[in-house]
Write a structure and sequence with these properties.
The complex is a heterodimer of chains A (225) and B (302). Chain A is of the alpha/beta class. Helices cover 34% and strands 25% of the residues of chain A. Chain A has a domain of 68 residues. Chain B is rod-shaped, with a radius of gyration of 32 Å. Classes of the chains: A alpha/beta (225), B alpha+beta (302).
Chain lengths: 225, 302
């Protein structure tokens, strides 16, 4: 699905990531940890083509990111659901429309999908808030709305950047359950987080691998966790 | 092919209700671009009226003056009759002259009346005799005629009006060119203003664009939403401006009655259809300008 080969990324000054080689296979469940500023967000951005590596190769669904045009990237994004740390929405449109946005922009909005949307909104527990505007939502509701938007196209991969960053433990448990359910449906999941409790909670239910960023490398963390 | 373009045009004008919702309803920049499109179209109507009116003026002056000329005979009183006779004979045998006729004393008195009053004793004054020449459509060879007249009637001076007709027609032509240049400048200004407004809108909606890109919207989809909005706005504004401009022109007092140097700065007959082209032209300018601006902006975003 997503392959990185000797990838390096540097922001102007120094190198943030170097010599990263990794393959996310279909149906896998990964956590990505590391101290703040270690490059978790950068790594995820490399995985969905928002950043182009400064060295090495990133292949998404078999295609080299460097060879992709803007439209190819757009089409590829329909297969990768992304949940940002600070989820952004179209603030003038109700939550339900925001969740349905990927359908709207890809021209897939039809009656079947409308039913799916209701189901999905129920699944993330937002049916009561469907007509609210995004700025009216709480942090947890925004995270769940972002997750619903990320999965509405039934993508092959879901990348979540600190999805439990600003919500309480109970809510992050719920969000984790949603992601685990998606993984059981065969989706590839990658969650960047520094919440070790969350990782422990997940490991009891799903075969999750933990990747740790340290010293600019991405390494598979031991079983110690 | 044609059908697809028609479909695109319909979507452009009526909008794609789904896609258009992704751009937030705009505030005062929308009203500003509407107003500028209206104001510029109003001005364009006047520039067009001026061009068409001066064009008409140039044609009319050209046509009227080209068909007449004047022969002036200044000779001692005793030779006047003979030279007039001789000149008339020359004119009768000149190809391109339809008719030649000496003005009567009454006509000459009428011509001079504005300067000397009605009681001028024309008969007793040594004023030249005037011969009016009506030309055929092809006209005559003025240089050849002058040569023959100098032999037969040395006191005859031919005035074929070209001397003062040419600068007038040139002036009218220049005025017409100026009008069209104004229209081009107005179109350029509309393009510049729409580009600025579109750039402002794109910059203000950076978050919207980022969200759309994240969920897999193609550039064409994002650009389309903005382009449609600005095209519709320019079309609406230009329609209002054009209607007001045409109304203003229609209400102008008819200058023809007053003696017509202005020949009625307005539209005549089928010329009334010309200003109707302004709104679609403004929409086309807006379409091109916004499309270019949107593509440029989007290319720079991740």
């Amino acid at each position: 699905m997503i392959e990185l080969e000797n990838v390096a990324y540097s922001y102007g000054g120094g190198e943030l990531l170097s010599d990263v080689s990794l393959e996310l296979s279909s149906g896998s469940f990964h956590f990505l940890t590391g101290p703040s500023g270690a490059g978790k967000t950068t790594f995820l951005k490399l995985c969905y083509g928002a950043l182009i590596p400064t060295a090495g190769q990133v292949r998404l669904f078999g295609g080299d990111v460097r060879d992709m045009g803007r439209d190819d990237i757009a089409l590829m994004r329909r297969r990768i659901g992304v949940v940002h740390q600070d989820c952004q929405f179209l603030d003038h449109m109700p939550v339900a429309d925001n969740v349905a946005l990927p359908l709207m922009v890809s021209g897939h909005e039809d009656a079947d999908q409308i039913e799916n949307l209701r189901e999905l909104m129920g699944w993330v527990g937002l049916n009561a808030r469907a007509d609210a505007l995004p700025p009216e939502l709480s942090g947890g509701e925004r995270q769940r709305a972002a997750l619903a938007r990320a999965v509405i196209m039934s993508p092959d991969v879901v990348l979540a950047d600190e999805p439990t960053g600003n919500i309480d433990w109970e809510m992050s448990q719920r969000l984790l359950q949603l992601l685990i359910e998606l993984n059981r449906m065969g989706k590839t999941i990658m969650i960047a987080t520094h919440d070790l409790n969350l990782i422990r909670a997940a490991k009891s239910q799903v075969e999750a691998r933990v990747l740790r960023i340290s010293q600019r490398r991405v390494q598979l963390a031991g079983a110690a966790l | 092919m044609v059908l697809r373009w028609l479909k695109r045009l319909v979507v452009l004008l009526l909008g794609d209700t789904q896609a258009d919702r992704v751009v937030p309803p705009a505030g005062y920049t929308a009203r500003l671009s509407l107003f500028s499109a209206a104001a510029m179209s109003f001005l364009a109507v006047f520039a067009m009226a001026m061009s068409l009116a001066t064009g008409r003026l140039a044609d009319r002056w050209g046509a009227e003056l080209a068909r007449t000329s004047t022969l002036r005979i200044s000779a001692p009183p005793e030779q006047m009759a003979a030279q007039t006779e001789a000149a008339l004979r020359v004119l009768e045998t000149t190809p391109g002259v339809k008719r030649a006729r000496p003005l009567s004393d009454e006509e000459q008195r009428d011509l001079l009346a504005p300067w000397f009053g009605p009681d001028l004793p024309v008969e007793s004054l040594p004023i030249p005799r005037l011969i009016e020449i009506i030309e055929t459509d092809d006209g005559y060879d003025a240089a050849g005629l002058r040569l023959r007249l100098s032999a037969e009637a040395p006191g005859a001076v031919l005035d074929d009006h070209t001397r003062w007709r040419r600068p007038l027609i040139a002036a009218a032509g220049a005025l017409r060119t100026l009008g069209w240049v104004s229209i081009l400048l107005i179109a350029g200004t509309v393009a510049a203003m729409i580009t600025l407004a579109a750039n402002a809108a794109l910059a203000a909606n950076a978050q919207v664009i980022a969200v759309l890109r994240l969920v897999g919207a193609r550039d064409a989809y994002i650009a389309g939403a903005f382009v449609r909005r600005f095209t519709q706005r320019a079309l609406a504004g230009a329609s209002v401006g054009t209607v007001l401009g045409m109304g203003a022109i229609a209400m102008m007092p008819r200058a023809d009655v007053a003696g017509g140097f202005l020949t009625g700065l307005g539209f005549q007959g089928l010329h009334w259809f010309w200003p109707l082209l302004i709104p679609p032209a403004a929409a086309a300018v807006a379409y091109v300008a916004t499309r270019a601006a949107a593509r440029r902006t989007l290319r720079e975003l991740p």
